[in-house]
Description:
single chain, alpha+beta
Amino acid sequence: xxxxxxxxxxxxxxxxxxxxxxxxxxxxxxxxxxxxxxxxxxxxxxxxxxxxxxxxxxxxxxxxxxxxxxxxxxxxxxxxxxxxxxxxxxxxxxxxxxxxxxxxxxxxxxxxxxxxxxxxxxxxxxxxxxxxxxxxxxxxxxxxxxxxxxxxxxxxxxxxxxxxxxxxxxxxxxxxxxxxxxxxxxxxxxxxxxxxxxxxxxxxxxxxx
Length: 209
């Protein structure tokens, strides 16, 4: 009987422990830095590319439903294919929210170099928990919770012709302190010297396309 009682007491503990361990193994990834590319932007006959960013609610609080909380900021840095930063900005994404950014209309429409022919390049995104975290403020308010996808425009052949659209997740990347500092420093100078050029814009979340 004593052995049975012991067994009955121990088994729930084991079950809870195993359950907790299983739950802990199901955590999502804690990435704060994402990279993707764009191609054939601002090209005659080619459709626009779109970067879509959602906030998975990782930073949501226990405030009552309807109270906005858990907002994250996506700091976007747009570089051309010569590794020169052309635009940067920071877009708010509320918990469970979605924002979609047009490459042609919002991420390359006001380039620092004032060029309209930027067609290929790299987009880097840093997730922070406060607006002051980016894109030019040197803080450590980095926080996971953003998830990023992007469409890509490819030519059907190597010669002039039609285009096709694909979509993929932005790659999770390692954010070193040097890379973070470089992105913020260049963006700071673009904001200071660009006279309005070089600052990308953000689509309101309720105007997704």
